[in-house]
């Protein structure tokens, strides 16, 4: 049987091991003197700070991009195909959580031209404040771009309801990927799309194409984002590839928590629904390319048929009823899933959606869909969606 350790109190009345007090001298104080001494020691101890100190590092702080000019010229030109912009814009419109994906293309070393030809949406590991690219999905997207003959030349993500400026975390991520891909001699850019920024009164989404470069100043070396003035290629988009990616987006996000109600008004001061707003933004991207109405009608039919709840569509007869009248005039542009996907892929999507639907039903007992404050969307008057400005303390890889 082990002997019990002898415990005594120290000079402050705290229990401790008797050995800890060996070799110490004691000062005999009266009760009043002891209380004063203890109070002085408490005042000397620093109080824990609950709020971050001024100037503390905030990884979600947004940084304004600098412009290339005479002092620092563009290291290369950027040309973006409309196909890539359409896919990125469609992906960004469907979720109030951040979305993410890869950009594919090629780089001409002689002419110093980076050409972005395709965008491949990826699954994201979202925490509400930021999202990171799922490694398995990233590998699959890279392989898909390689099959089409493209190299991975960049990545994109969305800032759903705030400015398309990179956060400190985005800048750090961009710098790491630039260093990694520069080993092969090809540049690597980042793209940020903001579809529902309250400060943007235009229905056209805001896009930022950026590169991170180091600058040495009085405070040391800093990584600063520089914004490209990219050019949109007049090359017609591949309808099959656009619809394949749009279909992936629709079937993934139509039952996801935080998906955007596309049949509702996207702003309180606008008569456009979220779907109409997205189509307006896409039409602007394709404005200089002839014969692209087929792409828009295919995307519109896909969303009305598979993304928007049919019961809510029938009730929302005021703002979106004319969409259905348009399809009566264009029966040749109707979209069926079997045209662009095989039956096995459709079954996989349906199985995935059914599993997500069960999780949404379980969560609905505490969170009432888009009325929850955590989703960032408020239902106003049954039809309107006011998307608040998300604070900068909120993004990628």
Automatic annotation (TrEMBL):
CDD domains per UniProt: MPN_2A_DUB
Chain ranges of the MPN domain: 78-212
Gene3D superfamilies named among the record's database cross-references: Cytidine Deaminase, domain 2
Superkingdom, natural source: Eukaryota
Gene Ontology molecular function, alphabetical: metallopeptidase activity
SUPFAM superfamilies: JAB1/MPN domain (SSF102712)
Protein name: MPN domain-containing protein
Origin species: Ameiurus melas
